[in-house]
Each structure stands twice: as structure tokens, then as C-alpha cells.
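chain below, 84 aa
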Amino acid sequence: MKLLVTAVTITAALAVSPASAQKTACTSENMAKLVTASNAMPDSPGKFAMMKEMGAANAAMAKGDMRGACKSYMRAQQMSGQKG
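prediction:
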């Protein structure tokens, strides 16, 4: 449930984010793909670290820090092994 709330919050925040933040790979589509991929991953320290980074991205967006949010998202994406 917490993961779903995080995904919805991220998607909503990106829908109203400035265009300059959209130049990076942190789009709502890419974040949704990452959340979907994390659901398929077995529980492991790597998955927990990735979800911690997604939580950090969510917290940064809540503070209006899209640059920090995108950095956390990119780290989470690298942990998952996904390509941008």
C-alpha cells in the first residue's frame, strides 16, 4: 500500500513539475516502470535500497526539490538495472 501511495504521489508531482525537470529521465512514465519492475523483484537488500531511494525522491518532491528528486530517482533506476 505504501508503494502505491508513493507511486501516485510521484506521478501527481511530476504532472505539475516544470518543463526543465522533464529534460532528465525522471518522468512519470519512467517512474511508473520502475515501481512496476520493483514489484517483480524478490525481496532483497538491493530492492530495499532501491525503494529507499524512491522514498527519498518522494520526500524531495514534497519539498519542491525536483533536482534532488531526479537524482534519487536516477540512483534507484541504476540499482534496478533499468536503462533510461
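The helical segments are 2-15, 28-40, 45-62, 66-80. The chain has four helices and no strands.
thats it, cya
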